């Protein structure tokens, strides 16, 4: 097994080294007068399967890049963690062997703590409000913290909000979560929110969640509706509280040197193509909320709401704990709570 892992790692490294890494081709193609006419084939990596909204957004980004550059800027997309974990991907983006990534804000916050601000619970009325907040000054300043890691943070992409799924307990209020063992992405702000209710958290990676809940190793999970359907969690969890208590952004990022090596016109094409992809993701995903809830209910899950007011003390606890840890988190919280 160990041998196989070493062989796979060597093959992956060879693949990344031998294929055109930062994407610039030496041929000057049909570029227009305002660009330098360079052609690129970029690589983009992310963790979700092709059925997830982030992958669809990546495809939209690819399509827009090609359209807006008359085919000069091409994109190869590597979904489903094909290039490794998010830690591996971000390292590859930093080194320039991969150009672009859609990396969860949860993982990004482990490298650049102010991204934790996005996990302020019940900060947004709906997905559109979060989508709008991404253009606020604090959100932009948070993206800029990636600069010192050799990465340019470009934008945020949203794929639904977080909900709570429970194996066999009909949780109707936060106090019902006391003593439950729940899978929560290994991100301190997300886990702290759950722990404040008296639940304990397990930071299992996505592929281990189905069997963990099936075998009773965990009593439930924090998830998004999209992934709940893709991974058929309705087969192993009876209760779905559509709390929409946190947003779940992916951070769109690019190797800084690669991006700064592009002409201003091409940088604009990249930014506008991403914006089109982010708009597409949020519009499409917002329109699917009712359909997703119905699909889970049709598959036997009890789908219900919990009054957000019941979480008020836990929201206050979060803000009190996380605001003082970082001036940017405080600025973001002040901006979303006003
Ligand atoms: C998760 O780890 O919960 C997750 C990751 C990517 C997309 C959806 C959910």
Automatic annotation (TrEMBL):
InterPro entries: DctP_fam (IPR018389), TRAP_DctP (IPR004682), TRAP_DctP_sf (IPR038404). Residues 1-24 form the signal peptide. Keywords: Signal. It holds the Pfam family DctP. It comes from the Bacteria. PANTHER family: DICARBOXYLATE-BINDING PERIPLASMIC PROTEIN, PTHR33376. This is TRAP transporter substrate-binding protein.
């Amino acid at each position: 097994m160990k041998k196989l892992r070493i062989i796979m790692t060597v093959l992956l490294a060879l693949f990344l080294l031998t294929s055109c890494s930062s994407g610039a081709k030496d041929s000057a193609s049909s570029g227009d007068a305002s660009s330098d006419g360079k052609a690129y084939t970029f690589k983009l990596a992310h963790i979700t399967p092709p059925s997830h909204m982030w992958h669809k957004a990546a495809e939209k980004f690819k399509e827009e890049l090609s359209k807006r550059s008359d085919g000069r800027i091409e994109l190869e997309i590597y979904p489903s963690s094909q290039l490794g974990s998010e830690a591996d991907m971000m390292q590859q983006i930093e080194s320039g062997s991969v150009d672009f990534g859609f990396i969860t804000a949860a993982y990004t916050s482990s490298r650049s703590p102010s991204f934790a601000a996005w996990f302020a619970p019940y900060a947004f009325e709906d997905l559109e409000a979060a989508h709008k907040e991404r253009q606020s000054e604090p959100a932009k300043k948070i993206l800029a913290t990636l600069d010192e890691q050799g990465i340019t943070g470009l934008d945020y992409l949203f794929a639904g909000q977080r909900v709570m799924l429970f194996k066999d307990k009909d949780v109707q209020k936060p106090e019902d979560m006391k003593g439950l063992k729940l899978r929560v992405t290994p991100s301190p702000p997300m886990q702290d929110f759950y722990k404040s209710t008296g639940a304990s958290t397990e930071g299992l990676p996505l592929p281990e969640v189905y069997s963990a809940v099936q075998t009773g190793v965990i009593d439930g999970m924090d998830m998004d509706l999209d992934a709940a359907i893709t991974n058929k969690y309705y087969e192993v969890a009876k209760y779905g509280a559509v709390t929409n208590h946190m947003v779940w952004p992916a951070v769109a990022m690019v190797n800084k040197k690669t991006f700064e090596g592009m002409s201003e016109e091409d940088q604009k094409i990249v930014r506008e193509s991403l914006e089109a992809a982010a708009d597409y993701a949020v519009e499409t995903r917002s329109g699917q909320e009712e359909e997703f809830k119905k699909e889970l209910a049709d598959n036997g899950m009890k789908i219900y709401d919990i009054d957000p007011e019941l979480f008020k003390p836990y929201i206050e606890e979060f803000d009190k704990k996380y605001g003082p840890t970082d001036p940017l988190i405080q600025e973001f919280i002040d901006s979303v709570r006003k």
